[in-house]
Amino acid sequence: GDRMWHFAVSVFLVELYGNSLLLTAVYGLVVAGSVLLLGAIIGDWVDKNSRLKVAQTSLIVQNVSVILCGVILMVIFLFKTQLLTLYHGWLLTMCYILVITIANIANLASTATAITIQRDWIVVVAGEDRSKLADMNATIRRIDQLTNILAPMAVGQIMTFGSPMIGCGFISGWNLMSMCVEYLLLWKVYQKTPTLALKSSKVEESELRQLNVKKESDPKPAEGVQLIVEKEAAGPAPPREKQAGCAARIAEPFVTFRDGWVAYYNQPVFLAGMGLAFLYMTVLGFDCITTGYAYTQGLSGSVLSLLMGASAVTGIAGTVAFTWLRRRCGLVRTGLISGAAQFACLVLCAISVFMPGSPLDLTVSPFADISARLFESEPLPTIASPGDKLEVAFATGTPALLNGSAPGNGDPEMSPEPVPLISVSLLFAGVIAARVGLWSFDLTVTQLLQENVMESERGIINGVQNSMNYLLDLLHFIMVILAPNPEAFGLLVLISVSFVAMGHIMYFRFAQKALGTQLFACCTPDPKAVSDSSPPGNTSTV
What we know:
globular; disordered C terminus; cell membrane; Ferroportin-1; peptide hormone binding
């Protein structure tokens, strides 16, 4: 249900706003900004409450929000013309705002669900068996890959042969049923795993350990003096404590935000997490940007669907490679091998920029299109004549409505040229092949965070990790907005490959600190996954 909604909400917003991407862009900006600002706070809430309460609350909020959005969208589709006439269209605008707000709440609840189930519950269920944890992580990722294929296909077929309103009703009904099933499954897992109920006591134990360390480190003569000072200051303290308590409640979200990022920076796996976040600063994925570019290069929708299916297959192959490599070479070295494999495949994308058929033109300013729209008041393009299709397609960054044929001069004998497809073929070959290393690397960093972050900090650390991922993802969208024309896409590819390289360099530095001279001693398990600075009892021995 969650995957269906993520796919459908953008389509619904485009349908509502007259085939414009404005509402979709606003929704993406709101979602990214919300997780960026509230990721640490959501993670802190996960840490401070019982596992069952967090899982049940986030599950209910997420599904109820999706159901409400579906109902509101059905009303808008039914009565859109009437809503346009009421209050000069302001009522319809308020409906748009309401849909985006509730959809954002659903995404935040989905983030909380992912943190508590995929970063906390799964670690407790696996226990001390690291191989079992790796297998469970890989299985969850395979399920995620399959739902990424099946959910859009199901919703797309319903909307194609039915209508958007039917699609809204189907998603609302599906989420209602799935919420009940998921709720029961969570309850069964919680009952069969008694250790899931021991979260609060473990947090208290970690806090007591920190207090004991502080007490042992203090000189004993000074303790008596300090007690006297505390007793003398105890008289006028109560009113100050009340004032401090009110101020602390107001400042608590800001303090949590600051403490979360500080704690994330101080983690022994900080560089590994940053390396993963840098992989989000890329246009080399199957999102709207890459598919839009593919349309300008003459690829049809059927070819793109086949390419997306191939990328899902290679992604699943990456999860299989992760489990095999982890057993043979250890967890940390698996990340190194996966990163090297991903970067080697992305070299094909960098080469494609300079191959025949690439629209890269360094004589054209990357900002030419946006400056023309904003400062020169150039009108939006219309459907061009056959002789003008080439110019329109490459000047606007949008397809020239050619149904899969390369832009040309209208002569059917001149349009099917194989040479221009060399560049785009290399580009997608690199993107698809790189999914093996990408998903293996993602699973590696995920398990490093699971194994080496204290239980009392799992929520807030993973919340900040999600914030970092969204921050780099937001930057990549801003990069595309600033340089949207196809002539600049080659530069975006090179920038993306550079960010991927920087991310893997960060991970290499982490691995060097963790393993030292044993970094390249492959085919043996890692003696330690992190340095000696990690908390006791949380070091990985895979």
